[in-house]
Amino acid sequence: LAAFLYRWEQHRGGGFQGAWMFLLNYPDREAIAGYAYEGVAWCSTHGILAGQSDGTLAPGAAVTRAAASAMLQRYLDYQAGARSNG
């Protein structure tokens, strides 16, 4: 879901620009697929993705409807804030 939201953000002209390096602070970060790492990093940086209560990300777990809803709402809130800030 993070990769999907990030690709949509890139389509809209957002996302990381230029060279970037972001080491995610999750103990299971090595399990994040290569294609999704940039999206997960962007979503984590912007508060769209917060991880599990135990401090892990659980990238291989199924996304529940509640978690997907929360991520979508945080993304929409981010977009609303981005529009109001310019």
Secondary structural class: mainly alpha
Approximate strand percentage? under 5%
* Largest β-sheet summary: none
Number of strands: 0
Cα radius of gyration in angstroms: 13 Å
Helix content: 40-55%
Distance between the termini: 26 Å
Low-pLDDT parts are: none
Mean of pLDDT:
91
Overview of this structure, please?
- The structure is a single chain.
- This protein is globular.
- The model has no long low-confidence stretch (mean pLDDT 91).
- The chain has 3 helices and no strands.
- The protein starts with a helix and ends with a helix.
- With 86 residues, the protein is mainly α.
- It has helices at residues 2-11, 34-45, 65-84.
- The relative contact order is 0.18.
- Helices cover 49% and strands 0% of the residues.
Keywords:
mainly alpha; single chain; 86 residues
Spell out the blueprint of helices and strands.
Layout: H1 2-11, H2 34-45, H3 65-84
Helix pairs in contact: 1-2
Short description:
Helices cover 49% and strands 0% of the residues. The protein is mainly alpha-helical.
